[in-house]
Amino acid sequence: MQPIKPQKPRIWLKDLKAGQGIDDFFVVRRFSLMPYRDPSKGHYLTAVLEDRTGKMEARAWDRGEQFAQVLKEETVFRIRGQATEYQGVVQLHIHAVEPVHPQDVDWEAFLPVTPMDRSALEQELDQAVSRIENPYIRTLLTTLFADGQIRRAYVTAPAAMSHHQAYIGGLLEHSLGVLKTALHLADNVPEANRDLLTAGAILHDIGKIAELQYDTVIGYTTEGNLLGHIVIGINLLDRWMEEVEGFPKALRIKIEHLIASHHGEYEWQSPKRPQMVEAVILHYADRFDADMFKIRQALAEAKDGWTPYLKSLERRFYIGEGGDER
Amino acid sequence: MQPIKPQKPRIWLKDLKAGQGIDDFFVVRRFSLMPYRDPSKGHYLTAVLEDRTGKMEARAWDRGEQFAQVLKEETVFRIRGQATEYQGVVQLHIHAVEPVHPQDVDWEAFLPVTPMDRSALEQELDQAVSRIENPYIRTLLTTLFADGQIRRAYVTAPAAMSHHQAYIGGLLEHSLGVLKTALHLADNVPEANRDLLTAGAILHDIGKIAELQYDTVIGYTTEGNLLGHIVIGINLLDRWMEEVEGFPKALRIKIEHLIASHHGEYEWQSPKRPQMVEAVILHYADRFDADMFKIRQALAEAKDGWTPYLKSLERRFYIGEGGDER
Amino acid sequence: MQPIKPQKPRIWLKDLKAGQGIDDFFVVRRFSLMPYRDPSKGHYLTAVLEDRTGKMEARAWDRGEQFAQVLKEETVFRIRGQATEYQGVVQLHIHAVEPVHPQDVDWEAFLPVTPMDRSALEQELDQAVSRIENPYIRTLLTTLFADGQIRRAYVTAPAAMSHHQAYIGGLLEHSLGVLKTALHLADNVPEANRDLLTAGAILHDIGKIAELQYDTVIGYTTEGNLLGHIVIGINLLDRWMEEVEGFPKALRIKIEHLIASHHGEYEWQSPKRPQMVEAVILHYADRFDADMFKIRQALAEAKDGWTPYLKSLERRFYIGEGGDER
Amino acid sequence: MQPIKPQKPRIWLKDLKAGQGIDDFFVVRRFSLMPYRDPSKGHYLTAVLEDRTGKMEARAWDRGEQFAQVLKEETVFRIRGQATEYQGVVQLHIHAVEPVHPQDVDWEAFLPVTPMDRSALEQELDQAVSRIENPYIRTLLTTLFADGQIRRAYVTAPAAMSHHQAYIGGLLEHSLGVLKTALHLADNVPEANRDLLTAGAILHDIGKIAELQYDTVIGYTTEGNLLGHIVIGINLLDRWMEEVEGFPKALRIKIEHLIASHHGEYEWQSPKRPQMVEAVILHYADRFDADMFKIRQALAEAKDGWTPYLKSLERRFYIGEGGDER
Amino acid sequence: MQPIKPQKPRIWLKDLKAGQGIDDFFVVRRFSLMPYRDPSKGHYLTAVLEDRTGKMEARAWDRGEQFAQVLKEETVFRIRGQATEYQGVVQLHIHAVEPVHPQDVDWEAFLPVTPMDRSALEQELDQAVSRIENPYIRTLLTTLFADGQIRRAYVTAPAAMSHHQAYIGGLLEHSLGVLKTALHLADNVPEANRDLLTAGAILHDIGKIAELQYDTVIGYTTEGNLLGHIVIGINLLDRWMEEVEGFPKALRIKIEHLIASHHGEYEWQSPKRPQMVEAVILHYADRFDADMFKIRQALAEAKDGWTPYLKSLERRFYIGEGGDER
Amino acid sequence: MQPIKPQKPRIWLKDLKAGQGIDDFFVVRRFSLMPYRDPSKGHYLTAVLEDRTGKMEARAWDRGEQFAQVLKEETVFRIRGQATEYQGVVQLHIHAVEPVHPQDVDWEAFLPVTPMDRSALEQELDQAVSRIENPYIRTLLTTLFADGQIRRAYVTAPAAMSHHQAYIGGLLEHSLGVLKTALHLADNVPEANRDLLTAGAILHDIGKIAELQYDTVIGYTTEGNLLGHIVIGINLLDRWMEEVEGFPKALRIKIEHLIASHHGEYEWQSPKRPQMVEAVILHYADRFDADMFKIRQALAEAKDGWTPYLKSLERRFYIGEGGDER
Predict the structure, then answer these.
(1) Most exposed residue of A175, D25, F100, F242, measured as fewest CB within 10 angstroms of its CB?
(2) What is the CATH number of domain F111-299?
(3) Domain named HD: which ranges (chains A, B, C, D, E, F) (predicted)?
(4) Is the pLDDT of residue C165 over 90?
(5) Inter-chain touch B325–C248, beta carbons under 8 Å
(6) D280 closest CA partner among E179, E315, E202, C270
């Protein structure tokens, strides 16, 4: 049987106009059955649908009770219907409701997405991997990203639940930012092995693909809550390195140390502190990239030269007023 | 060729008397060549041999230079010779020196050993495993300890480098102590799953078998230094659980969480804090067993009712004077 | 004169139905006088009465102004009246108001009470005391609990203002829980004196009988605020031990040390850290019992396998989903 | 029987000259029996005697073995003998050795003593007490210091084991210093009750009379180790306040709060932080007096304008060089 | 042209009565234009005016749109108008609006002012300066306070944004409080140089004149936010000391050290901890004065013997109930 | 008079051979007069001389007593003499001793010097300054380094007393390292002003020229001890910026903020934390350069793959063993 494929290109809720028909995937955030004034008519359905551009009220009249058997809150359904206008507000009249298989869902329709060009980022990733000279490390990364499921997760996952780059594509964006900063820092450090550093930067947060869930909302998985992305990432890499023939044990330990220590301090949940030159650089690069992301976001909201108070950094930042240093 | 097998039972250095011949394994701590007064005679060899009962000076006269080609410091060799007495002190005259394969060495001859009956402890371990009802957990532990190398390491490793039970058999002794305490604590906690708790207690420190080296001295391995026993242990178990057919993912995560959180706080290098009833119990039992070991050791040295200052607990302990509460 | 004795058995507010007459003690939380529309008629009284099962609006019409002279907020009064129904809600019509002497009040009518069987707990306490072998310790506890006022306070007091077992009978429940855990822990510690441990567990929080007030609401007394239950408890025991003839000074110091150190760390307001085996065990048992109480309460509210966020432990707990380890 | 009373005035060891006879109390630090070269002569005794001015070697020839039956190390004995000179060094020839009753010992002969005039300090104490207007507080202090044993202990005890005023009379000196500072601070604080403050300053460290031992060396008693001077002091005062007829409970709590909170922070072993104006003042005065004592001592050793490093304050202090601000 | 000078004495908003005319400076907190029901009439102006005694609604009918061109929120304007009454509330009818030059504004009309007599405080300052014996220090302070702008700022600035003495004149009041306490503390410290201490107390917070802005609301200036009053104060004094001929370098360093270290600890933003006797005293005096201010303020609000919870000190304070110690 | 100019090129002590004559500057570490066996001959002089390559014993026979009048320990003198050999050790026979003016001393002869090419570093400094576009900042730095005394101090001072680059030229080396890292980091941060960053990197530690003394030993000056290099640096720059005509106040505050916040946290003695993008970058670059210096130094001493324990970073670093990742 042919898997359902809603129409393309998608009409986003923010663009939907009265009169337009739609047939697409939406998160059903809330729904309930409401009694008709005439009790003999039973109930109609009211629901709130959402995609990443906004929310919309929806109604189903005749088959409301039937649809209510099928629907589940916080879940994606294929919805067919027509936009109408009621008291000046666009509203959707639901004609059909269909459960969908998670694999068929384009999750990015429901969450914010990195402002950067994602295919350019992906290309940058592949180039970085191809520049690795150490055969074992290059094989590890090549194999890993040749696995469709891992690659898809890696280029889709957010970088965090809320702190920084909390959007689809955030993990990829952040990892490449860390890589760039790390290689810059290594420019003055001849002792640093750039292959190790490249692997460390690309892989340091790979555990986030299983730590975070990011379908209709960004949150922690049970695995994420109980193990954390450091442990998850090491476990994952440990298995993949075993698959690379002849992967040296010393190299495996070094790469796992980069993951284990990248938060830098025990109280930030690193079970080890950086004890290799590359681990020190990676930690600095990671913190720098995350801090800068937060600050830059705050700068965009600055007023009278000052950003709003940034809770995670416990301060406001000053950007100055036009021309004040001239 | 027949592998060498030095005589049994071993004569310990502390018991060696002038006139006795020996043929056994010793650590060669230090050696050097000394010139004869008559330069034409070349050099003789002086060495310090050690077993876990003590050290002894040794000399080789004629073939000293030849032996020096073979010896390596901090390494175990098979030594043949005869005890002599020189100025009232027993000394060994070396007749032969032979390199040995690590596998042939009974390492426990060189390090302190738990005062408890090791085979009784091992039996206790097996009984605890056999009491597990959950088939997956029982299979995991049975398979694990059926692996000769892991079993041998587990029953041999010390529990720590210096803090507590820093002797051969310490890991086994400590793990069983934690198990007993944990099950006692669970007596008042019906919510606690005793199978999980048994697995957690037995496995929480299993990473120490690779974190520590304990041949001629107890120290950290490079893997131990860079990853720590929590990460090492999780990696090891992750692979073994994968081997158990049908091992539920939820169960794997729970067991790994027990390992990940058993130190209880981030600053004690746990990447997660206990978030399950069993993890809380395990953490309490682990700390209690370790604290009690240290205190009990100190009590044995108490004078005038007070132990010496215990650096790791930052205090002295009071044991009272005979009959003072009667 | 005969002390007033309201009817028995009590009708709880949650069970009161229109038409029933009542004559019992209630906390008067709030009251005020309201003007009649016809000013010549003066004012009527509205009040909120409460017992531990709920609150109820009450009115007094003719004698409202007179009652208002007598009433005081947050205080218990004997109230006579009749339940009526007004707009579908049950309301009390007050006929008489009488001040009461605190001694006549059954305070437990106004606060939550332990879910456990309180007389069984009390029996458990007495048995524990009777098992003590050291004659001085046994005499101390026997005498102490033979004092009616102390016994009543001990079996009534809550264990804390809000953290754990914050209900009538909580102190007794918590102390016995600590005792059970402490004796279990001591099973592996032959050095521990079980009599001392029994005394420590039963008495460690005895200062709470004066630290907390628990009549119409649980709060701190001025003495509790300024001295805390550790100092109050030691003072109290110091006087009682002096009354036991021949009580050894060394034993007095040990028992006071158990009280002084049971919080374990200075920052938790212990002026001393545990320096005796029994003090270490007591501290572990106290923390374990309190933590487990909080966690178990949270588990009862778990949803999708996770408890709500527990502020005092700064995390959520995982209980897993049905059958996930099978 | 007449108690022994060694000659007065005492000859201090530092002043003892060859030829002088002595008959006085000394600490016997160490002693041993040495064989004569001629074995038939048995052993002679060598001992180290000490008073607060210094140490001296002593010998007993004929009756050495007999004296050795009587002597005990770290204990005070009455020693009779004669100073001689041997190889240019003064040495004592012991003629008689007599055990003494602690009560007969003037302990101050063996420990450093405050440089201040102790009877003037004692007078200052009595005047401060006599200035108290509140009858209960004045009675408390008058009665307390009328108790010979307490008074003697109070005017003799050191203020600390090593931190500040670690000498005979230190407690009195420190308490009066705190009193002076506290009253000065209160000059700007009309809300402060000067009677309470006087009591608080005089009594805040009274527990030190039982926390510290200060006969032949300053150290902690077992009670001091297990309870600390705050708990000991409150216990002591609690009993004495009970003896003052009609002593108001509110006043007792306030005074005990002053003791309980005078260290200011939990981590400095105060079970409560200051919650009364007088408690705040007392805490500031206590810290100020202790800090200033340490700094002033260090200033006396300053070189090139700087004191040595003061470990307890983690810094050096600058006193400047002559005339550098002119 | 004659600078505008509104009438004197000022009529405070809290005293303004319907019918009175006013012509004075007010902060315009908010204003907006509201459409008349008859659109052809355009808009009228509504505004909220404020002085330090309160706020008042104001309206401008005919010339509202014209005034709106001139007004700016959070800014002081000269307003002429007449009080009217509307629905029982006094309201102002605006007749004229005039921008003003900051120099002409008496800022104290808009912020709370110290309850103390400010000219008495100023006199006290001058006397303290005149008592300084060291010619360099006296010249420094005399010159500094002879500068009109600095003197005006110093006697006007608040002591803090919210913690203590957060009102006009607060800096002066606090500095003199610190001086008094510091000199009292120095009474027992002969080593302390009273001239240095006087300078330190008067100048320790002088940077606040540029750290804080205190025209229509107390807040931080950009300079205050980026440098803090310690750095600002040292910079300012450094320049002024350079102007005093022959000012000894050692003296300059000492005074700057007093400023740099007066917060006492690094985490309280002192780049140095006190390393001179005078710096230690100054730090104690500063903390004591600030703490006492907060506590005293809380005492004024005490109920049932207890102050409200003081967030900055993390506790409540007990003042006791009438006569409870008698 | 012609200032003395010892011979060039200098003969270093480590190269001095018996028979060679020398005439150069040396630190006299210690000296004393020793009596001749024949008392009638008086005393001879023994001294320890030092330059940065080592120490040497020296003697003066006939004029020893006369030289002792002139010498001072820890001070540089011009010494003339001849190397001799005594019992196989080279020793100096002193012929003449001459006090010298500090200005004439080439201090670098007595302390370790950066291994880098100092004139290349100086050139790099000038180029960095010349690349600044903002006219005020460029003028500030140009003027500053045109001042001979400041330039000399800046290119000579060490970067720290012991932590990192504790040698002559260290400040310059460190500042340029920070500059390079900072500009690299800024490559990804378009918001960062590179001129500000250049100024911040070059000037952040300029206070060290007065904080540290570095003539015969590296230590703190009194100014350094009492104010620290942050305050000293801001003071210095504040005066120099005032000299640049029209220097914008906003720019001055920003530059001073860079200095004030570069340690990043209050507990590291920064009175402000970074609140500008440039300040954040500068802080990261400063820590990174200092950490890397320490680690790199440790790497040079690594054995078996591990560096010695680095106390300031509380760990050892792993460099791996040859070829272990291949």
Answers:
(1) F242
(2) 1.10.3210
(3) 171-291
(4) no
(5) yes
(6) E315
